[in-house]
Amino acid sequence: MKIEGTQEVHARRERVFQALVDPIVLQRCIPGCERLEQVAENHFSTTLRAGVGSIKGVFIGNVRLEEVQPPAHFRMVVDGKGQPGFLKGAGTLDLEERDGATVVNYSGDVQVGGTIAGVGQRMIQGAARMMLAQFFTAIEAEAQTKADEAPPEHGFFRTTLRWLSGRLRRPFRRPTKPTSSTSQE
């Protein structure tokens, strides 16, 4: 299954990158993440409570960051097993600064097996999109927090309200000037 998309985060690229590789921040931002511990450089062990439809469970797995190029790029490799099945995947995240915000382009391939795969690819993709929206909304709140401030509170309702608020403000934002680039081949 292919997962790809683009997300605009209203924070500086360096802050967004820091949030995306900090296990403490990630544990607060990943929906259902109960534990995320660093076991080696760029290698983490995790426990995640997740599900699709009526099939829910706890997954225990590993996350590895590769090709780390701060603050622009990294590759993430994940694997996890639990009672409802297994998950294996890899993907890249590319961060681009644009008008004081950060555009995150992500692309990856995920394999899902076991009982959870029985709910169907469309349901799994819908759940993945929902989790990604919650995740990036929480990352944006974290990246906008100043160093001396307490971290923002997360949870389903707070994250949903942040997401909804951002969607409602979107039509009222000033349009950005397109960047022109010329290339000669």
Please provide a written account of the structure.
The model is unreliable at 177-185 (pLDDT under 50). The chain has four helices and seven strands, in the order βααββββββαα. It has 185 residues and is of the alpha+beta class. It has a single domain (2-170), classed as 2-Layer Sandwich (Alpha-D-Glucose-1,6-Bisphosphate, Chain A, domain 4).
Explain the layout of strands and helices:
Elements: E1 2-9, H1 13-21, H2 23-29, E2 33-40, E3 43-52, E4 55-69, E5 73-82, E6 85-98, E7 101-113, H3 121-144, H4 156-169
Antiparallel strand pairs: 1-7, 2-3, 3-4, 4-5, 5-6, 6-7
Helix pairs in contact: 1-3, 2-3, 3-4
Named CATH topology: Alpha-D-Glucose-1,6-Bisphosphate, Chain A, domain 4
What is the domain tally?
1
Q: Major β-sheet, in short? A: 7 strands, antiparallel
Strand portion, in percent?
A: 35-45%
Order of helices and strands: EHHEEEEEEHH
Instruction: Assign the structural class, choosing from mainly alpha, mainly beta, alpha/beta, alpha+beta, or little secondary structure.
Output: alpha+beta
Count of helical stretches:
4
Query: How many strand segments?
Result: 7
Level-2 CATH architecture: 2-Layer Sandwich
Low-confidence stretches: 177-185
Distance between the termini: 35 Å
